[in-house]
Structure formats: C-alpha cells, structure tokens
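input
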Amino acid sequence: MTSGVCFIADSSWRRPANGNVVLAGSPLTLFSLSQAGQTIAECIERAQPLPQGHEVLTERLLNAGAIHPIPSTIDSAGFALSAVTAVIPAYIRTTQEAETLKSLVASCSALHGVVVIDDCSPHALPDLGAAQVIRLEKNSGPAVARNAGFAHVTTDFVACIDVDVAISDTTITQLLPYFADDKVALVAPRVKSRASTNFLGEYEVTASVLDMGESEARVCSGTRVAYVPSAMWLCRTAALRSISGFDESLRSGEDVDMVWRLNDAGWRCRYQPQAECSHLPRTSLHKFLLQRVSYGASAAALAKRHTGKLAPAKFNVWQASTWLLVLLGMPFIALGVAIVASASTAQKLRRFPQLRDESFRIAMHGTVQSAQTAASAINRVWWPIAFVLALFSQRLRVLFIVAALGPAVYEWWTKRPHLDVVRFALIKMLDNAAYGAGVWKGVIATRTIAPLIPTVKKSATNEE
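output
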C-alpha cells in the first residue's frame, strides 16, 4: 500500500473504552493491540494519516475486513481510463439485446478499447464502431468468452462487463484508485437492479442476488461478502493471467471460482459500493426461476474445487447443539445450552477488561446469527428434506414455516420495497426454493453431497 493512504473502520469496528482491544471484521475477529497499535487504531477511527510502521497491523486489519482504504487519500496517478480495456461477452438473441450492446459499447468510448466476444449469437451484432469483435464458432459460455477476450488485452486493467449492464461515466474512475494497493486484483461496484413496473422488478430492486449491499468489504469466502458477481468487475490484467483466467469448464459459478482462486493465490478482491452500475432484471417469473436454479446448480461443482467453502451453514459446537436440540423437540434444553454457551463465551472475553460490559451481548449476538444461518439453510438448501419431514410432524411443520416466512418478512420490514409483504415474501420463498432445487440438481449430477453438509468448528471466537 502506498504511503499517505488513510483508512476507515468497518461498520463492525468496536474498541471499548478506547483501549487495547478491537473487535471487527468478517467473521468478527478480536485484535489485541500494543501501545503503537492503539495509536494506529486512533488514526483509523479519525481517518487520519498513519504513523510510520503501520503496515504490519493494517495488513492484518485489511485482510480481516476490519478496515478499508479511503480513495480520496490514494495517489491515483497513472490509473487512468486509457489503461483499461473492456471485455464484453455477448450472446445476442433479439434486436433489443443488440441495441443494448451498442449502447454499452458507446458508454465505454473513453477506455483504451473494447473487445466484444460474440459467443456464436443467433442474432447479428449491430455496428459497434471501433470495438474489436471476435466471433466464437461454438456457444461456449461466459468463462470461455471472457478468456478469449483477455487474450487481446494489452492494458494493465480489464473491465469485465455483461451486455445487460449499464455503467456511468464514473463507475470505472471510482474503482481505479484502489489498485494503488499492488495486492488488489479485482474491485467490483454495486450492481443495482433497474427499476421496473412489474412485481418482479420491484422485488429485484431491493433483493437482487447481484446486489451485495451498501457496505464496502474485502471479498473472501466465509465473510460477509463471500463473492461478487462478474456482471461488472475491474481487474488487474496480470492477476487474471497469473491464475490462467476463468475456469472454462464452469458454465455457471465461474465468477465465484475466480474470486476464491485469486484469494488463494494471495491477491485481494474488494467490493466498493460507492461505485455503481445497473442491471436489467429478469422479465418473467420463468426466467427469474431459471436464473436462480442455475446459480444453485453451480454449488456442487464449486464444492469439488473449494473444499468446505460451499457449506450451507457454519456453526460452532455450541450453536450446532442448540439447533439440533430444537429440531429434536427439546426447546427448553436448547435454550439452556444457548445460555451456557453465551456465558462461556462471555467468560473467555472477560479476560479483556474493556470487554466486560459487552461480553454477554457479543455472545448472544453470535447465537442470534446462528439462528439466521439455520433458517437460511432450511429454506434454501435443506428445504426438500424439511418439507418431507414436515408432512409427518406438526412441530417440524411449524419450524419450517417460521424458517421460511420469518426471514422474508424481516427483510421486507427492514428494506421496505414498493411491494406488499405478501408478494415479497412469496417471491422470496420461490427465490430460495429455486436456488435450493438447483443445489440438489448439481448434487445429483456430480454425485457429491458437499453443498448439503454444514461445517462445525470448535471455537466460538476468532482471535489475532
């Protein structure tokens, strides 16, 4: 990271009593600070320039997602639009899609160049002016198309943009400064769904699977933002070539695989929602559900490549015991286990005097999060099993309904879309069910049950 760069603390940042302990990042990690570390923490909290020798601590905090660079403090000299080439994979089926492609290419006119990969489109491409067009003789999918485009890139940076994405004049310029950190391989903007008059469009505006939310993040498996969709990426060309580009055997999930392989190779990937682009929502319920099934179907193939990263739920031993007891119809014993677990975690944290007042709240927060994780797994991946069990047990039927409806209603309440709660909850359940159906489809096709198996760890806390 270049000198003079300032950082801001992640929204998870807690430093009780301004002391020598920080809780921050995703997953939440406890950092014990030296006297010099406390000075660095104070500078971060005030968004001030850092003292010399900050690099070791700030690297740890960056990798944990506990802090983020402030772009206005980054020396972005040399990071210009002329150093970027756009690569656009195109499978054009209609005149409307052809016009959308033409508009996208025009919006990239300030870049060094545009490479369009015609993935054996059934419809003729429009006149794209100075853009370089390469036609594949066989429809091979986005991974193959993008790799074909990368082969023609001569600039330091490459923007991967899907045809149904619209970028603004500032989308790329807002992302470029983050590459001043020479470990950053990929920066993704927020992908918002374009407003639509139908109910699906209204749902996607607030609950699109492409929208990773309003908080910036380090992108890594097992964190708050585990991946970013390749609808729009800005990448360091050398980083993509160092891992041989996309895995061409993947028709779906190739973007998740790419992000995780970049992380495994020592690169950093970032999500910066300050930059935005827009994406066309699916126009029919059939297309909407097919998209979700496709996403789910990629989980099994990804699980074979990335062991343990596609688990539908991750618990510690206490959390797993709590929810197993609930499932077995012993809620009072489960409540007792949850209280004991919270007390145990609180006791561990009390060795840090600054955490004495917050320890129990932190412990209970972990239990609540595990409940959300369990509900998500039930209504997304485990729903076929839950549905069958619910046919034979009224208690399990109630649990299944609560797990399906509860999170959907809560999301509607917090996001307040221009859609009534009944339709929003119904679409949300269909969304989750379609994804889960795709997971089972992939499990059967690949003969692996990895995407169905939760992971259980011993420790309830992460410390550094």
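quick obs: The longest helix spans residues 421-446.
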